[in-house]
Write a structure and sequence with these properties.
This protein is globular. Strands 19-20-21-22-33-32-28-29 form an 8-stranded antiparallel beta sheet, with no helix packed on it. The protein has a 5-stranded mixed beta sheet with strand order 10-11-12-13-17, with no helix packed on it. A 4-stranded antiparallel beta sheet has the order 1-25-24-23, with no helix packed on it. It has 2 domains: 338 residues, TolB, C-terminal domain (Neuraminidase, 6 Propeller); 106 residues, Immunoglobulin-like, CATH 2.60.40. The relative contact order is 0.12. Helix content is 9%, strand content 36%. It is mostly beta strands and 497 residues long.
Length: 497
């Protein structure tokens, strides 16, 4: 066997070993569904026979109904989603649109992000049916089935943002594909960011800053949440060809070097924004999608002001938290709920504080068996023992919990199993976890109320994802963690005060 063959064999063996390890970890996580049900049951929202609701976008209306935009291009108004035993009503408001992945309501009109444009849809005759369709913006090109467009909620100034996927994974063949555009209330459209591959959603994080969901693929080894700032480059260079039509973006960024590291390229390519939250592939989803922020004032349990994001392939919901460190966004993701019936495209909190989830299995294989479904996740009032939030410290991390921890386990550094890894930043599709390390916990400090632990590590490594396995911890009432895993992306390390 020559050297080249030996190298290829070694690569194949390493990839297989990593895949088996991730599969074993996912298999272990799948066993939590029965326990999840004890705290967060799933309730089916029935859909009348013959009606297809492939939910791509949601919007809560002033009268308490929920509007849903579908992949078939329809808008339905649904009443009764929060009833104890839901038998909802469905009212068809509009048809003739195309794959709705953004839906807002203001001044008696819907603002619909569909594949080809943002459209203002209204019922001026008060008949209960849309009769007026106005193009607010069609500033981008659309020529391929995979060229999806995702729309955000309104920001503080009434603007919406549209995230445009590439024509294919590697190419941008239509105007502004791979860009994020801002659409003002009067329809003025400007470019904000470039470098997208295949977004799955766009919106505001817990502090009102703009973020979008990116999918695993070329230049993206895992799915991620990314912060969007003016003139930013999000990592995939295919859209550089449209800078000449967007002078507001400034000069074209230098081309990234394939095979480098994102933390290194960020120093060379000043516009480049690293992922704020990396979702380790397979272990934390395979194709994350729409997200929303919990503003239910405690109706959904101990996760107020946190991001809830769906995953299409694995039919699951995850949590995320973000923080800005040295001017750069970063944060953590956490397991939350599996066992949903179809691929999740979008989520929204209902007036009663339940999480409404919807989607489809059309296009790609998904774990949920149904071709489409509407389901709500509700909190039954029973407090789970969970990792509530992880934030970074100058020499380690602060881990907050939903219940007081048992001081015997929580004060033992050996109960904190923490490893790290990074990804190559390269043009290939996906990529391995590399440069793995094992972090050493040097000390632990428990808060007086037992609700948090501050850990000091032997070192913090910029550009690495920290993999927390806290299965050895126990609550003061002896409960074990509902989910033992969490992942924190370190882009920056705070300076000690």
């Amino acid at each position: 066997m020559n050297c080249s063959s030996k190298f290829l064999l070694l690569v194949a063996v390493c990839a297989l070993t990593a895949s088996i390890a991730r599969a074993e970890e996912v298999g272990a996580r799948w066993g939590t569904e029965e326990r999840e049900r004890e705290y967060y049951p799933i309730v089916n929202i029935s859909i009348p026979k013959g009606l297809v609701i492939e939910a791509g976008a949601f919007c809560v209306l002033p009268d308490g109904r929920v509007a849903v935009g579908t992949r078939h291009g329809e808008i339905y108004l649904i009443g009764g989603v929060d009833a104890k035993r839901p038998t909802p009503s469905y009212h068809l408001f509009a048809t003739g649109l195309d794959e709705i992945f953004g839906l807002e309501f203001k001044d008696n009109a819907f603002y619909v992000t569909q594949s080809c444009e943002v459209t203002r849809v209204s019922d001026t005759k008060k008949t209960g049916k849309a009769n007026k369709f106005e193009t607010l913006s069609d500033a981008w090109g659309y020529a391929n089935y995979h060229e999806y467009a995702f729309g955000s909620r309104f920001d503080r100034d009434g603007n919406q943002f549209v995230a445009l996927g590439l024509s294919f994974s590697y190419e941008s063949r239509a105007l502004y594909r791979g860009f994020i555009l801002k659409v003002t209330p009067d329809g003025k459209t400007t470019a904000v960011a470039s470098g997208l591959r295949s977004p799955g959603g766009i919106g505001l994080n817990e502090t009102g800053e703009l973020f979008y969901v990116e999918s695993q693929g070329p230049w993206n080894c895992s799915c991620s949440l990314k912060a969007v700032t003016p003139r930013s480059f999000q990592g995939h260079p295919a859209s550089f060809n449209w800078y000449k039509y967007a002078p507001e973006m400034g000069p074209v960024p230098p081309a990234p070097k394939s095979g480098s590291r994102i933390i290194l390229e960020k120093e060379r390519v000043k516009q480049l924004v690293p992922s704020a939250v990396v979702f380790p592939y397979i272990r934390m989803g395979r194709s994350i999608t729409g997200f929303t922020v919990n503003r239910t004032k405690g109706k959904f349990g101990p996760f107020e002001d946190q991001i809830f994001v769906g995953d299409y392939t694995q039919s699951i919901i995850m949590r995320a938290t973000t923080e800005r460190v040295n001017g750069v966004w970063q944060g953590a993701c956490y397991q939350f709920r599996e066992g949903l019936s179809t691929g999740i495209l979008n989520v929204v909190f209902t007036p009663e504080g339940n999480l409404l989830c919807g989607g489809t299995n059309r296009g790609w294989p998904v774990r949920g068996a149904k071709p489409f479904a509407l389901e709500r996740i509700e909190w039954n009032g029973k407090m789970p023992f969970e990792i509530q939030r992880i934030t970074i410290e100058p020499t380690g991390f602060k881990i907050a919990f939903t219940k007081p921890v048992n001081p015997k386990t929580a004060s033992d550094p050996k109960c904190y199993k923490i490893s790290t890894f990074t990804h190559p930043y390269h043009a290939g599709y996906g990529g391995p976890e590399i440069e793995q390390t094992t972090a050493r916990v040097d000390s632990v400090r428990i808060s007086k109320d037992g609700m948090s632990a501050t850990i000091v590590l032997n070192e913090l490594i910029r550009g690495h994802v920290y993999d927390f396995d806290l299965g050895a911890l126990r609550a003061r009432d002896t409960d074990q963690l509902l989910h033992r895993k969490a992942y924190y992306t370190v882009n920056e390390i705070p300076v000690a005060k």
